[in-house]
Amino acid sequence: AAYDVFKRELMLPDGLDLAYVQHFMHIQFAIEAAIVAYKPPHSNQHITLIRVEEGMEHIDGVVSQDRELGRDSTYGWSEVTAVGVDVDFVPGTHNEMFREPYVQTVASTL
User: Fold this and answer.
1) What is d(CA 21, CA 24) in angstroms, rounded to the nearest whole number?
2) Residue 56, SS3?
3) Are the C-beta atoms of 79 and 47 separated by less than 8 Å?
């Protein structure tokens, strides 16, 4: 079941062996742990946050001590700066936003 989700959401190719998938999952868990543990330094710079319109429901369950992601549309970045945070939504999922045609919207947002 997890393989099917990774394959669908992360665009894994067909024919991967179990060892590769286990290694990939280990890396994904490490990335999630790093996200939760990250404590950004305070900044006096304006922040632009680009969020996707779909497929990020799972991140609402990821909460660090200082940033309650599911309760704040800036995912906690408003606590990092006194200047302000622009939140822009782009179509697609987190992984799709870096590929055509979605990447064009990300580029125009920047």
Assistant:
1) 5
2) coil
3) no
What is the Cα–Cα distance from 107 to 110, expressed in whole angstroms? 5
Phi, psi of 43 (to 5 degrees): -140, 150
Amino acid at 102: Y
Residue 47 and residue 85 in contact, taking contact as beta carbons nearer than 8 Å? yes
Q: Tens of pLDDT along the chain (110 residues)?
A: 666 776 677 656 667 777 887 888 899 899 999 988 988 899 999 999 999 887 654 444 444 444 454 567 888 899 999 999 999 999 988 888 888 999 999 999 98
Residue 12's φ and ψ, nearest 5 degrees, are: -70, 140
**Residue 8 near residue 44 (C-beta atoms within 8 A):** no
Sign (positive or negative) of CA dihedral 69, 36, 65, 88: negative
Measured in whole angstroms, the distance separating CA 107 from the mean position of its chain's CA atoms is 17
In DSSP terms, 85 is beta-bridged to: 47
CA distance 43 to 84: 10
